[in-house]
Amino acid sequence: MRKPKSLYHGHRFPALDISHAVRWYFRFQLSLRDIEELLFERGVTVSYETIRRWCNKFGKGFAHRVKAARRKAGGTWHLDEMFVSLRGEQYLLWRAVDAHGAELDILLQKRRDKAAAKRFFKRVLRSNPVPHKIVTDQLRSYPAAKAELPELVNVKHVFVKAAARINNRAENSHQPTRERERRMRGFRDPARTQAFLSCFGPIRQHFALKRHLLRARLYRKQLAVCFAAWREFTNVTQNPSHAF
Name one GO biological process term (predicted). Predict the structure, then answer.
């Protein structure tokens, strides 16, 4: 019986180094050159372009595994949009989060009309069950698109004002994206931005525990669980505490 190929088949660097680089890039506000320096300090000589290729190749798969393993999405969707400038052109980043604040999906589009809202609804429905309730701002594209989707016709729709705190789950979910946008000095290419943010959200949230609500011992215990799950997602057997 033929042995299945390793996830890292064809790569001369150890799986642990690749896993670290991908996690650091999507988890922290680090540039590719920052990660190159961190790896060099630990005796790994690799160029930032190689790290970029690692992130492009493995990021999507790792993010998919993270999303598949997390707890079932809550019955409420919170939807919102934020403006993003790409080389001087205005785009809208549509985002859906559940009642727990977990990101369900994102979609970068140029328009804010019914067709764009319908496209986003369909995208979220492909990987999530039909919700019991949808919470949005007062953008009229949402109800117009929802009325044309049989799965969502009977779903309760709650409208809130943009400044209302009830939709803070969706609005607050934009903050890490804004921070990363500033760190990267703006996004540039629509396709690359969509690909990056699709990985950035799930991987960042996997490790983003609510530290201010946890005692130190419980926080470390939960973080250890996150790391153990990450090693499983990335097919790495070595414990990070024993690395380098």
Answer: transposition
Residue 123 or 71, more confident: 123
d(CA 74, CA 131): 8
Give the β-pairing of 76-86 and 133-136: parallel
Reading the block at residue 36, the tokens are 């190159």
Answer whether 233's CB lies under 8 Å from 65's CB. Answer: yes
User: What confidence score (pLDDT) does residue 244 get?
Assistant: 53
Query: Is the separation of the CB atoms in 34 and 90 below 8 Å?
Result: no
> CA–CA separation, 128 vs 181, rounded Å?
27
The whole-angstrom separation of Cα 129 and Cα 125 is 6
Instruction: Pick left, alpha or beta for residue 201 (phi over 0 → left; psi -120 to 50 → alpha; otherwise beta).
Output: alpha
Q: How far, in Å, CA of 98 to CA of 103, rounded?
A: 7
Q: What is the DSSP letter of 187?
A: B
101 class by beta-carbon count within 10 Å (0-12 exposed, 13-18 middle, 19+ buried): middle
Where are the chain's structural domains?
A: 15-69+208-234, 76-189
According to CATH, the topology of domain 76-189 is Nucleotidyltransferase; domain 5 (3.30.420)
Average pLDDT over residues 17-45: 96
99 confidence band (pLDDT: 50, 70, 90): confident
